[in-house]
Write a structure and sequence with these properties.
There is one protein chain. The chain is mainly β and about 625 residues long. The chain folds into three domains: about 170 residues, no CATH class; about 200 residues, no CATH class; about 210 residues, no CATH class. It contains eight helices and 44 strands. Strands 13, 14, 15, 16, 17, 18, 26, 27 and 28 form a nine-stranded mixed β-sheet that branches. Strands 2-5-6-11-8-9 form a six-stranded antiparallel β-sheet, with no helix packed on it. The chain is globular and about 65 Å long. It starts with 12 loop residues before the first strand and ends with a strand.
């Protein structure tokens, strides 16, 4: 095991420099830019002025690794952005590397933690890798109004769990760079209601304007996932989204039908590396983190539901689910609207104190015990300030959001990218993968986009003679033998970490998904049941352990997680999860960890333009 340096008194140097950037009174001509759709976007003319004001120099109270609570207590580096022009300005703040002096060795981003205070909002603590990789390491972005001042404090420190190999005697030097442009694009709330196409329309209930129809132009790509715009709030102009596909399959609760306090609420709003919210890109800049979710009990049949009262059960969270009224409003109570994705998935609405509503693969609503595991389609509310900068809202060309429309990513480390993004990896018909998370900190966990095929047909395998995965049980031997030889050639196999720790915790009836990895639901320590192997499977409830195609176009596949000593969890082709004997044969969806040096050479990370990788 690598030696941690939290108690090692070796000198560790962190330095940061600031480049003063003046963009005062620069005149811009009248410009236009047109997206792929029919709508024209204007860039307003005017005078752009942005000043970066220096504050105190960044100081560290210690040159040894710090726990997050101590890092957050540092004085930090204070700076301000001031708009002295006569138009509002889009800006992005980058943290760039400074060349090291002779004899110095650069500290990897994975060994550094940071937090950012923007006016009174605290972002973090996070690992520096979440900013991206040099020269695309993004501190913050947004729009600043005329005469507006935005005050920042940046704190950086060495990770408490950094190893001597990673950080001992090494140096970090950086500089701030600000790129400012005239605003481009229009607000999401305006565009999604104006460009619905022939298969879309709207329904206004005097509170929200719902998008309706069978397949409107309301597709949005954000943070590695395809979403549908569901509604726009008439007053504050936030836009509610829901993922097009099930991101995972999770038990709702141990028995209670309340969303608040449920496993479901926990999974959606978990900000760790294991959680949905924690893997959303710059979520503080994109989504309403104190959104109100109406989880009022309702036993009314689909098609007859009225809007739930604001005096009902309201839960405040960043991420939620659609309630049954919102599903009904997408197509006037019919089952063939655009929100029917051909899979089973949970709603937010309890049917009673014993059952929760879910939508089935035909689009009908039914109710079931919350101790079952159905598909999860997370829902978020985009802030009113978020803008669309590209796309036409179709499935082949979804809207792209300002701040999540990266280009020219050649040379960027894959470890800086986001859960859900697509990767070209593997051979022939099995060459599409997706990012799961950065569970091991410095690398990237990926999974095949769908279970393995041979000549167009899904292959199957028994799990093994028992419910414990290993590199020598039936499915483990295949993954660490035939799969690495014939499904992933040496070009890709060399990018894979030689050994990964796979967590084998048991998730029984009505228990938390966290037990698949942790000793308890409080995540006080990881589960002692593990195995080491080069290739494995996803856990029950893990990110991306969901179906990403309609019923009939996919297959059952194994997870890594035992349900008991006699059965193992699997994900079904209709989107929910249940259990089977390990001697049964089901699909195989391999997962591996890629090394920290894997870089992107081309691509944007979408399904139609996946990242192409290099191991250099």
């Amino acid at each position: 095991m690598k030696e941690t340096i939290k108690n090692n008194k070796k000198i560790i140097i962190i330095a940061i420099a600031i480049i003063l950037l003046l963009l005062i009174g620069i005149a811009f001509a009248y410009l236009t830019t047109t997206l792929h759709g029919e709508k024209e976007y204007l860039v307003r003319a005017g005078s752009l002025g942005l000043r970066l004001e220096e504050g105190n120099e960044l100081t560290l109270s210690s040159q040894i690794p710090l726990e997050d609570k101590d890092g957050m207590a540092l004085d930090g580096f204070n700076f301000s952005l001031v708009n002295e022009g006569n138009i509002e300005t889009d800006y992005t703040i980058y943290l760039d590397d400074i060349p090291l002096d002779e004899g110095e060795t650069r500290m990897p981003d994975s060994a550094i933690r940071y937090s950012l205070t923007k006016n009174d909002e605290v972002i973090g603590p996070k690992n520096l890798t979440t900013m991206g990789s040099n020269p695309n390491r993004r501190v913050d972005f947004g729009t600043i109004g005329v005469d507006e001042t935005i005050n920042y404090t940046l704190r950086i420190w060495i990770d408490y769990d950094a190893t001597s190999e990673d950080a001992g005697g090494k140096t970090f030097k950086g500089k701030l760079r600000v790129v400012a442009t005239q605003p481009v694009g229009e607000k999401v709330s305006e565009v999604v209601l104006e460009n619905l196409g022939e298969n879309g329309s709207t329904y206004d209930d005097d509170v929200d304007t719902f998008i309706t129809g069978t397949d409107p132009n309301n597709y949005i790509w954000y943070s590695g996932k395809l979403w549908r715009a569901v509604s726009v709030n008439n007053e504050v102009k936030t836009t509610k989204l829901v993922t097009q596909w099930n991101i995972s399959a999770v038990t709702y609760s141990s028995g209670s039908t309340d969303f608040e306090g449920s496993y479901m609420e926990d999974w959606l709003n978990d900000t760790t590396v294991d959680g949905f919210l924690g893997n959303l890109r710059d979520y503080e800049n994109f989504i309403v983190t104190d959104a109100k979710w109406n989880a009022t009990l309702d036993a009314t049949s689909l098609g007859s539901i009225t809007r739930p009262s604001n005096s009902g059960t309201i839960v405040t969270d960043a991420v939620g689910l659609l309630n049954l009224y919102e599903y009904q409003s997408s197509n006037n109570g019919e089952k063939n609207g655009y929100l029917n994705n051909g899979l089973y998935w949970w709603t937010l609405t309890p049917y009673s104190t014993s059952y929760v509503w879910n939508v089935d693969n035909s689009g009908y609503a039914s109710y079931i015990s919350p101790s079952n595991a159905r598909g999860v389609r997370p829902s978020i509310n985009l802030k009113s300030s978020v803008k669309i900068v590209d796309g036409d809202g179709t499935v082949s060309n979804p809207y792209r959001l300002s701040g999540d429309n990266d280009t020219n990513l050649s040379g960027t480390l894959l470890s800086s990218r986001y859960s859900g993004e697509y990767i070209r990896f593997g051979n022939e018909e099995n060459n599409l993968y997706r990012i799961v998370s950065h569970e091991n900190g410095s690398g990237t966990k990926i999974v095949s986009a769908e279970p393995l095929k041979s000549s167009g047909t899904f292959i199957t395998s028994a799990f093994g003679s028992n419910t414990t995965f290993s590199s020598t049980n039936t499915i483990g031997a295949f993954l660490n033998g035939d799969y690495l030889t014939n499904y992933v050639d040496s070009t890709y196999s060399d990018m894979i970490e030689d050994s990964t720790t796979w967590y084998l915790g048991t998730v029984g009836s009505g228990t938390s998904y966290k037990l698949a990895k942790y000793a308890d639901a409080n995540m006080s320590s990881t589960n002692s049941s593990t195995t080491d192997a080069k290739a494995g499977l996803l856990r029950f409830g893990e990110l991306m352990a969901g179906q990403f195609d309609r019923y009939g176009n996919n297959t059952y596949y194994w997870t890594l997680t035992p349900y008991s000593t006699s059965s193992v969890w699997r994900v079904n082709y209709n989107g929910y999860a249940n259990t089977n004997s390990p001697s049964d044969a089901y699909g195989v969806r391999p997962s591996v960890n890629l090394k920290s040096n894997v870089q992107i050479t081309s691509g944007t990370g979408t399904k139609s333009d996946p990242f192409v990788l290099s191991g250099n």
